[in-house]
Amino acid sequence: MDDAVVVLSGVTWDDYERLLEIRGERGSPRYSYVEGTLEIISPSQDHEKLKSLIGRLVEAYCLERGVRFSPFGSWTLKDKALERGVEPDECYILGGADVDRPHLAIEVVWTSGRIDTLGIYKKLGVQEVWYWRKGHIRVYALRADREAYEEVDASELLPGLDLELVVRFLDRPTAYDAICDFRAALKSSP
Questions:
Q1: I want to staple 115 with a disulfide (CB 3.0 to 4.6 A). Which of 28, 39, 63, 150 is the partner?
Q2: What gap in Å lies between CA 76 and CA 120, rounded to an integer?
Q3: Burial of 85 (0-12, 13-18, 19+ CB in 10 A)
Q4: Residue 185: which residues within 8 A CB-CB, separation 6 or more?
Q5: Is the pLDDT of residue 145 over 80?
Q6: Within the chain, how many helices (H) and strands (E) appear?
Q7: How far apart, in whole angstroms, are the C-alpha atoms of residue 5 and residue 140?
Q8: What CATH number is associated with residue 68?
Q9: Looking at the DSSP assignment, which residues form a beta bridge with residue 186?
Q10: pLDDT-derived band at 112, boundaries 50, 70, 90
C-alpha cells in the first residue's frame, strides 16, 4: 500500500512552523521542508509497521551487543537558517552522548518522486541514514566535511550489524516473532 504524498511549492518557513504547531505532538502527517518546498506524507499502515519493526530489530541488536542507544521516533529536525526540516521514520542517538541531532535516521520509502530528504539530512548533520526500499536497506554515511553522503555496504555506526539479516526477519507474522528469531540468529553468530 502506498503512502499518501502531497508536495507544495512556495511555502514559507513560517507556514511550515504553523503546520507543525497545528499538528502538535501527533506523528502524522510527517513533513519535509527545503527552501520553500513542503512534502506532506500520511504513512500507510504497512509503512508504519515496517519502520517500527526495523527500529525494534535495531534495538534488539543494540541490546544483544551492549550498544547504548536512545530512540527518538520521528523527531522533528529543523534549522531555520538552512531552511530545512525533516522527520525520520525512526532515529537514534547512540552511546551516552547529549547531542542535538540523532546519529542514525531510518526512512521507509514506498512512494517514488519524493523530496530529496538525504540532502536535508546532510545539511542538518545526521551521521548515517538508512533507506529501506523494495526489500533492501541502503546505508549512507556522512563524510567529515558534511558536504556529501557516501553509500556504504554496512553501517559504520553499528559495525557488525548484518542488514541483510535484518531484512530477512521483516516478513514474520508479528514483531514478537521477528524479534525472537532475530535475537536467536544474533546469538548463533559471532
A1: 39
A2: 12
A3: buried
A4: 165, 169
A5: no
A6: 5, 11
A7: 24
A8: 3.90.1570.10
A9: none
A10: low
